[in-house]
């Protein structure tokens, strides 16, 4: 595909791939018992933020993992974007600072659902 010259056909081929990838990702979130979202970076990745919103709308518990120590919240009361943080907390999840905490909390949240 990348070997194709720039053209409307090439753009449409990428759009078709993107639609399939997006649909597969949405289906995976729908099947999941919970969501682990990596929140590192100056701002939460827009795709991750969309996945968090989608999972929250489906009633899935969400655990946010932030290993990045930089301030990224809208103010000192927020770890990350306040809306992202709201959806995580509203799902009965939390934002944690280690992989071990994330795994333990995910197991706990999944056990509560069963």
Please describe what this structure looks like.
The protein has 114 residues and is mainly α. It has one domain (33-113): Rossmann fold (3-Layer(aba) Sandwich), CATH 3.40.50. The protein is 53% helix and 9% strand. It contains four helices and three strands; from the N terminus they run αβαβαβα. It has helices at residues 8-31, 46-57, 82-90, 99-113; strands spanning 35-38, 62-65, 95-96. Strands 1-2-3 form a three-stranded parallel β-sheet. Helix 2 (46-57) runs parallel beside helix 3 (82-90). The longest helix has 24 residues, at 8-31. It is globular, with a radius of gyration of 17 Å. The chain starts with 7 loop residues before the first helix and ends with a helix. The mean pLDDT is 94.
Average predicted confidence as pLDDT: 94
Number of strands: 3
Into which percent range does the helicity of residues fall? Answer: 40-55%
Provide the β-strand percentage band.
Answer: 5-15%
Determine the CATH topology. Rossmann fold
Considering the chains and any ligands shown, give keywords for the structure:
114 residues, 9% strand, globular, Rossmann fold, 3-stranded parallel β-sheet, 4 helices, mainly alpha
Fold topology:
Layout: H1 8-31, E1 35-38, H2 46-57, E2 62-65, H3 82-90, E3 95-96, H4 99-113
Parallel strand pairs: 1-2, 2-3
Helix pairs in contact: 2-3
Structure at a glance:
This protein is mainly α and 114 residues long. It has a single domain, classed as Rossmann fold (3-Layer(aba) Sandwich), CATH 3.40.50.450.
């Amino acid at each position: 595909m990348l070997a194709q010259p720039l053209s409307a056909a090439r753009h449409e081929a990428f759009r078709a791939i993107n639609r399939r990838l997006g649909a597969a990702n949405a289906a995976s979130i729908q099947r999941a018992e919970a969501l682990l979202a990596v929140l590192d970076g100056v701002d939460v990745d827009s795709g991750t933020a969309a996945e968090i919103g989608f999972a929250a709308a489906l009633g899935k518990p969400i655990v946010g993992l932030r290993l990045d120590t930089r301030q990224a919240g809208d103010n000192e009361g927020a770890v990350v974007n306040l809306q992202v943080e709201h959806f995580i907390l509203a799902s009965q999840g939390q934002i944690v600072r280690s992989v071990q905490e994330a795994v333990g909390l995910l197991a706990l949240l999944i056990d509560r659902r069963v």
